């Protein structure tokens, strides 16, 4: 094994180890832990998006649809039939796969921004349906996960945030492993061929439609799983939040693009920057001049993207390259 | 990659300097914030201070601020050695996830003894999931039925539920019409397709059905509608005897203006929100006269208190400010009775006592008592009507300050 390879395994292992130990000193109900939870969740969401959006450059702005389907499925099944979210999560994943399949038939033949617009519309359709189908979803008022403080693991509800944290950490590692497997497989190479030049990929014999379809399904299923986890963490959501363009769809894409699209550690870096940044902006500015926090957050994002259009990961790479050159010299 | 490696090595360090500077600037208020004396009581206030509901959030904050300042000026909480109320105010934006995070932050970092908020039901519901698990009381004027419908122990709703508001709107309207010699059998409902509009319209629909009234028009329209004339044309073609529009401010102005321009003088009964704020009158002038609306509280019920709001802020005490002030009043009395700021003890006091002192008296009946679900049993929805620049309570009879003006067909 070369030094670079050792480093590429040791570094993420260290990060995960640090994340396992990190909450032990923290207040198990606490605010810091909640921010870490959101960070892990959005990192996992970004990673799921990365499979299609990063590797194949199919910019989807409708992933909130899968996220919401996952959240609603488990919550409705638990609320109406007492079915554990541990089972409901699979129902949500199956439904999301179905939705992705139906959606893919017309949209996967679209290119570039037409694909982005079509997926954006799909997310909005899901929101409108959830708003209107009141008998199923509870309508625009939103839906609460029934409170069962003593049911424990079966109901996937906990008094403290700590178990949620480890669930999110597990999910984040799982989705990252899936991404890594895809990235290093022949499937991943085909996706990247599509990213570079779809016509050329077809010429050399890649069934681009089928490859994109498989990637979309995989991404949708993982996103739905995270939707259930979110519902069991937040316990209340409404259609405007769960199917939100800014709150979910764009944020997933943003995290990946900011961190580094198509890269395994892209969403890690993206989420580690965006979530605390957003929270700090609200924490310090949300009191004095409301609205300024959102503004400051937006400005900071623009600055970061202008400085590093290829994602923050490029910053680390240039640092590494400099070290290498210095060693050689 | 080749591009960045050929750059001067200084470029990276310059960024680092910038980043370090920014980080320091961002963390400064964090340290500044930690220096509170021990004899203050931190109370969390979460409101939508930015976004679509900002105006309502600011009104709510003003109401709470007024009460807190009055208590502090009068020597703080006596039973706690004159401890001062310190409001920790934060923006919930319009995102429930953010609202819950803010609540978590207040409980962890500021050790708030209770939370007041957050106007919009979706924000309140999200906050309540956090406060419930931590055992911190949450006092609210959000009126969604879900608020007290989930068996939570730590949530207290000072106003009537949405379903009660819906049925009160219909029954009061029928009474007012009957007094004027009209028997209403057909009504029209139009509402914006938001959480607020849909749930309010649902309450009206259910109440109409229960009273055997036919809903001849039941139209949702998108938020931010710019042309309401199709709606009004449709209304004209129906045989409706009264119209119930539910909306925030901009749509309400369009709807009333368009109706009056087309010469439709049907009795109009708004669904709170945009219909009972000063901007409604400012935007419509005389056209606002005689428009009715349901309101969970009315400022003319306790002028000795609510006039102090007008003095300080320059406009009449809108209902969300009044109800949030009542929340703060209940909390102040509870602190006085408990003698300490432990959230669990406060919860017990709030759940057990009847609050009939200070700002708690601005709600109907002059007192507040919560039932086992956390709902204020003395809350009665008011029917108010525009008279010049003021709102006047016209129903129910025992609270009415003036006779209603009813436009006969």
Describe this protein's structure.
The complex is a heterodimer of chains A (329) and B (409). With 329 residues, chain A is mostly helical. Chain A is 75% helix and 1% strand. The radius of gyration of chain B is 24 Å and the shape is globular. Chain B is 44% helix and 16% strand. Chain B has two domains: 40-160 and 300-378, Response regulator (Rossmann fold, 3-Layer(aba) Sandwich); 163-295 and 383-399, 3-Layer(aba) Sandwich (Rossmann fold). Chain B has a five-stranded parallel sheet with strand order 2-1-3-4-5, sandwiched between helices. By secondary structure, chain B is α/β, with parallel strands linked by helices. Chain B contains 13 helices and 14 strands. Mean pLDDT of chain B is 87; it is low at 1-12 and 26-38. In chain B, strand 1 (40-47), helix 3 (54-73) and strand 2 (84-91) form a beta-alpha-beta unit. Classes of the chains: A mainly alpha (329), B alpha/beta (409). At the A-B interface, helix 2, strand 2, helix 13, helix 14 and helix 15 of A face helix 2, strand 2, helix 4, helix 5 and helix 7 of B.
Secondary structure layout plus pairing:
The complex is a heterodimer of chains A (329) and B (409).
Chain A: H1 3-21, H2 31-54, H3 64-81, H4 85-107, H5 112-132, H6 134-137, E1 143-144, H7 162-184, H8 186-196, H9 198-203, H10 208-234, E2 236-237, H11 239-242, H12 245-259, H13 266-285, H14 292-307, H15 313-328
Antiparallel strand pairs in A: 1-2
Helix pairs in contact in A: 2-7, 2-10, 2-12, 2-13, 3-4, 3-5, 3-10, 4-10, 7-8, 7-10, 8-10, 12-13, 13-14
Chain B: H1 2-5, H2 10-32, E1 40-47, H3 54-73, E2 84-91, H4 96-109, E3 115-117, H5 121-134, E4 138-140, E5 155-157, H6 162-179, E6 186-192, H7 195-210, E7 214-221, H8 229-237, E8 242-246, H9 249-261, E9 269-270, H10 278-284, E10 292-295, H11 303-313, H12 319-338, H13 343-352, E11 354-355, E12 368-369, E13 382-387, E14 390-395
Parallel strand pairs in B: 1-2, 1-3, 3-4, 4-5, 6-7, 6-8, 9-10
Antiparallel strand pairs in B: 10-13, 11-12, 13-14
Helix pairs in contact in B: 3-12, 4-5, 6-7, 9-10, 12-13
């Amino acid at each position: 094994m070369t030094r670079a390879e050792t480093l590429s395994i040791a570094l993420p292992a260290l990060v995960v180890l640090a994340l396992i130990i990190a909450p032990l000193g923290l207040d198990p109900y606490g605010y810091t832990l909640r921010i870490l939870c959101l960070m892990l969740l959005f990192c996992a969401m970004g990673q799921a998006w990365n499979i299609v959006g990063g590797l194949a450059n199919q910019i989807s702005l409708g992933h909130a649809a899968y996220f919401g389907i996952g959240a609603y499925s488990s919550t409705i099944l638990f609320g109406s039939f007492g079915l554990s979210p541990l089972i409901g999560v699979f129902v949500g994943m199956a439904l999301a796969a179905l939705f992705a399949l139906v959606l893919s038939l017309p949209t996967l033949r679209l290119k570039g921004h037409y694909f982005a617009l079509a997926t954006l519309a799909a997310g909005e359709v899901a929101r409108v349906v959830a708003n209107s189908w009141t008998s199923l979803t509870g309508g625009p008022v939103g839906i609460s996960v029934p409170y069962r403080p003593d049911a424990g693991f079966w109901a996937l509800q906990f008094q403290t945030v700590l178990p949620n944290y480890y669930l999110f950490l597990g999910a984040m590692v799982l989705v990252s492993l899936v991404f890594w497997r895809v990235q290093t497989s022949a499937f991943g190479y085909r996706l990247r061929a599509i990213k570079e030049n779809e016509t050329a990929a077809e010429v050399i014999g890649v069934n681009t439609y089928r490859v994109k379809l498989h990637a979309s399904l995989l991404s949708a299923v993982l996103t739905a799983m995270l939707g259930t986890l979110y519902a069991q963490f937040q316990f209340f959501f409404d259609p405007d939040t769960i199917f939100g363009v800014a709150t979910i769809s764009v944020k997933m894409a943003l995290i990946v693009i900011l961190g580094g699209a198509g890269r395994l550690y892209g969403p890690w870096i993206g989420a580690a920057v965006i979530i605390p940044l957003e929270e700090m902006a609200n924490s310090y500015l949300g009191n004095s001049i409301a609205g300024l926090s959102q503004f400051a957050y937006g400005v900071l994002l623009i600055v970061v993207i202008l400085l590093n259009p290829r994602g923050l990961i490029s910053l680390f790479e240039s640092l590494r390259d400099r070290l290498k050159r210095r060693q050689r010299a | 990659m080749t591009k960045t490696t050929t750059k001067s090595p200084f470029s990276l360090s310059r960024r680092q300097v910038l980043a370090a500077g920014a980080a320091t600037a961002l963390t400064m208020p964090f340290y500044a914030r930690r220096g509170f004396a021990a004899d203050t009581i931190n109370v969390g206030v979460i409101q939508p201070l930015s976004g679509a509901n900002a105006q309502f959030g600011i009104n709510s904050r003003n109401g709470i601020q007024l009460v807190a300042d009055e208590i502090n000026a009068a020597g703080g909480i006596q039973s706690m050695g004159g401890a001062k109320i310190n409001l920790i105010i934060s923006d919930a934006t319009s995102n429930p996830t953010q609202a819950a995070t803010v609540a978590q932050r207040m409980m962890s970092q500021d050790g708030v003894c209770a939370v007041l908020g957050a106007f919009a039901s979706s924000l309140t519901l999200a906050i309540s999931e956090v406060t419930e698990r931590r055992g911190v009381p949450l006092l609210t004027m959000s009126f969604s039925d879900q608020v007290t419908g989930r068996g939570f122990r730590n949530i207290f709703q000072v106003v009537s539920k949405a379903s009660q508001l819906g049925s009160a709107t219909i029954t009061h309207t029928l009474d007012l019409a009957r007094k004027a010699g009209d028997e209403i059998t057909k009504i029209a409902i139009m509402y914006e397709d938001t959480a607020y509009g849909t749930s309010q319209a649902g309450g009206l629909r259910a109440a109409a059905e229960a009273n055997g009234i036919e809903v001849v028009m039941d139209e949702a329209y998108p938020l931010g509608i710019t042309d309401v004339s199709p709606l009004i044309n449709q209304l004209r073609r129906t045989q409706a005897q009264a119209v119930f529009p539910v909306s925030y401010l901009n749509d309400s102005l369009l709807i009333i203006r368009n109706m009056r321009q087309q010469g439709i003088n049907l009795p109009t009964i708004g669904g709170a929100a945009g219909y009972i704020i000063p901007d409604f009158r400012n935007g419509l002038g005389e056209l606002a006269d005689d428009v009715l609306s349901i309101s969970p509280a009315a400022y003319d019920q306790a002028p000795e208190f609510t006039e102090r709001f007008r003095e300080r802020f320059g406009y009449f005490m809108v209902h969300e400010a009044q109800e949030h002030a009542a929340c703060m009043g209940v909390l102040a009395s509870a602190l006085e009775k408990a003698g300490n700021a432990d959230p669990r003890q406060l919860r017990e006091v709030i759940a057990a006592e009847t609050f009939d002192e200070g700002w708690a008296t601005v709600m109907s009946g002059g007192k507040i008592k919560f039932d086992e679900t956390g709902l204020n049993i003395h809350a009665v929805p008011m029917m108010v009507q525009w008279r010049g620049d003021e709102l006047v309570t016209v129903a129910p009879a025992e609270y009415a300050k003036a006779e209603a003006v009813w436009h006969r067909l």
